[in-house]
Amino acid sequence: QTNGHPNLPKPAGKPEVIEDRLFINGEFVPSKSGKKFNVINPTTEKLSASVYEADAEDVDIAVQAAKAAFPAWSELNALQRAHFLERWASALEKALPEISYLDAISMGKPAYPDQLAMMIPMIVRYLASKALDVLGESSLNTANFVNLSLRQPYGVCGAITPWNAPSMFLAYKVSAALITGNTIVLKSSEKAPLSPLVAARCAKEAGIPPGVVNIISGFGKPCGEAIARHMDIRKISFTGSAATGRAIQKASAESNLKSVSLELGGKSPLIIFEDADLSKAIPAAAMSIVMNTGQVCNASSRVYVYASIAEEFLEGLKATMALMGKSGDPLAEGTFRGPQADKLQFDRVMAYLDLAKQSGVNIALGGEREGSTGYFIAPTILSNVPEDSRLTKEEIFGPVLIVNTFEEEGDVLEKANASEYGLYASVFTKDISRALRVAKRLEAGSVAVNSTSPTMALDMPFGGWKGSGEGREFSSFALDDWTELKSVYLAI
Ligand code: NAD
Q1: For ligand 1, is residue 239 a contact (CB within 6 Å)?
Q2: Is ligand 1 within 6 A of the CB of residue 378?
Q3: Global model pTM greater than 0.90
Q4: CB of 162 closer than 6 A to ligand 1?
Q5: Mean pLDDT for all residues in the chain
Q6: Which residues are catalytic (predicted)?
Q7: Given this model, what pLDDT does residue 5 score?
Q8: So what's the pLDDT on residue 2?
Q9: Low-confidence residues of the chain, pLDDT below 70?
Q10: Minimal CA–CA distance to 461: which of 442, 477, 449, 482?
Q11: CA-based max dimension of the chain
């Protein structure tokens, strides 16, 4: 919730040098194989950069560096570690214009304003503020013993991130690992490896000791898989699709049973009751699916609107989505809507639009590619889509909103919950009892009342029920995911 923040960064111009190497043991190094891969600008379809590609050998070198750095790092006290995070946050804050520029030319996120980038230093500072919150407990339960439970770091953690907010997930995972005394090897997404390398440079500028943070670029295979299977990595934190989450869970089970936390996808329902304030519900629904061109894990992508107000809602929604303007160059001031992140992502969304056309679904708005260069897709509304259609069931991860109707609370709850996912849900009503009753019955990790995603707060736990994941991020609860618990029995 950074709307109106006075310091929204402006994108920098093209940096003199775009970092293309891996960040291992405090240094930027080429990959051992010398292999590189291309990052294509989704607006121009031209080459933005080529970066070194890590494979299993590079992963192992990074893990050994993180292992060597662990004893000294974990023995610092938490406030000392917080100090390093504070310095990292300041370096990141200065680098935000560069980060915004690099995200724009790699995955198309509008750079001006870049509200997601604003979150990066805020997240790091929030985690730094949690330094003293990682507590065990003591028990006087037995006369002859004092018992203690201790929270201790795992050691070397692995992290794998997606491309839709490249350095934001990185900021969380690295800060959470570090504040709890772990060291980390993080693989960024092959679609957006550029800004994570700026975050790496900032870690170096902040004086974080070599080996504590290692950031490498590469593909799911072999690099991500090598992290998931590495015997010296004790915990892995993953954000990405459900299919990859399953693969990581399996790789962990087949290697050393590392602790796995998963932040996966969603198909989040938005329920609009007959007493909803449509002047708030309509812009909230539109914003949720158009922001970051629908490439948001908790986007409210399935609307259930009360039948008697459906027409009014739909007409208002169409007008509002149209008002959100034509798509444009993510580097231009005021562009709110950029392209899909890359060709693969574009083709994926277009395949869903083809399916909509073939199956005779009502396309109330959009449904087409925009322009002929760049991976732009018009904001799309599909209405009255069968509940068992793949369009209603699967995460499209584009600016495509399903709008269906209902007439009864029990029925809409059943439909909303009939999903393999459970990341986020929203409800609009003025009836407080109904709001809380429905919030309680929705199967989701977060429920927004009279609001939609991206509403979330750093001090509230974020994560999924069901197929949307395992574990939580943000809030004090989430730090538990980064520590092992140990019971110590002391005879007195
Ligand atoms: P993805 O699963 O394709 O890729 C995510 C990361 O996993 C990338 O770095 C990729 O290289 C890596 N990867 C791919 N195969 C792998 C394997 N076999 N082993 C190890 N790593 C592997 O997802 P994506 O397309 O980058 O991101 C979009 C997805 O992420 C959507 O489903 C979205 O909902 C989800 N997401 C979830 C959250 C959340 O907090 N719940 C946030 C953002 C995105």
Answers
A1: yes
A2: no
A3: yes
A4: yes
A5: 95
A6: 263
A7: 52
A8: 43
A9: 1-10, 325
A10: 477
A11: 77
Query: What's the per-residue H, E or C state across the chain?
Result: CCCCCCCCCCCCCCCCCCCCCEEECCEEECCCCCCEEEEECCCCCCEEEEEECCCHHHHHHHHHHHHHHHHHHHHCCHHHHHHHHHHHHHHHHHHHHHHHHHHHHHHCCCCCCCHHHHHHHHHHHHHHCCHHHCCCEEECCCCCEEEEEEEEECCEEEEECCCCCHHHHHHHHHHHHHHCCCEEEEECCCCCCHHHHHHHHHHHHCCCCCCCEEEECCCHHHHHHHHHHCCCCCEEEEECCHHHHHHHHHHHHHCCCCEEEEECCCCEEEEECCCCCHHHHHHHHHHHHHHHHHCCCCCEEEEEEEHHHHHHHHHHHHHHHHHCCCCCCCCCCCCCCCCCCCHHHHHHHHHHHHHHHHCCCEEEECCCECCCCCCCECCEEEECCCCCCHHHHCCCCCCEEEEEEECCHHHHHHHHHCCCEECEEEEECCCHHHHHHHHHHCCCCEEEECCCCCCCCCCCCECCEECCEECCECHHHHHHHHEEEEEEEEEC
Which residue's alpha carbon is nearest to atom 41 within ligand 1? 263
- Indicate if ipTM > 0.85: yes
- Whether the Cβ atoms of residue 177 and residue 247 lie closer than 8 Å to each other: no
Residues annotated as catalytic are 263
Q: Is 443 left (phi over 0), alpha (psi -120 to 50) or beta?
A: beta
From CA 464, how far away is CA 422, in angstroms rounded? Answer: 5
Ligand 1 in reach of 463 Cβ (< 6 A): no
Q: Report whether 261 contacts 238 (CB < 8 A).
A: yes
Ligand 1 pocket, mutate which of 241, 340, 421, 453 (most atoms under 8 A from CB): 241
- Ligand 1 touching residue 295 (CB < 6 A): no
Q: 262-281: buried (b, 16+ CB within 10 Å) or exposed (e) per residue? A: bbbbbbbbbbbbeebebeeb
∠405-368-427 over CA atoms, to 5°? Answer: 30
Structure confidence by residue, pLDDT tens digits, 109-128:
998 778 788 899 999 999 99
Residue with the smallest CA separation from ligand 1 atom 39 is 263
Q: What is the pLDDT of residues 9-56, one digit of tens each?
A: 667 778 889 999 999 999 999 999 999 999 999 999 999 999 999 999
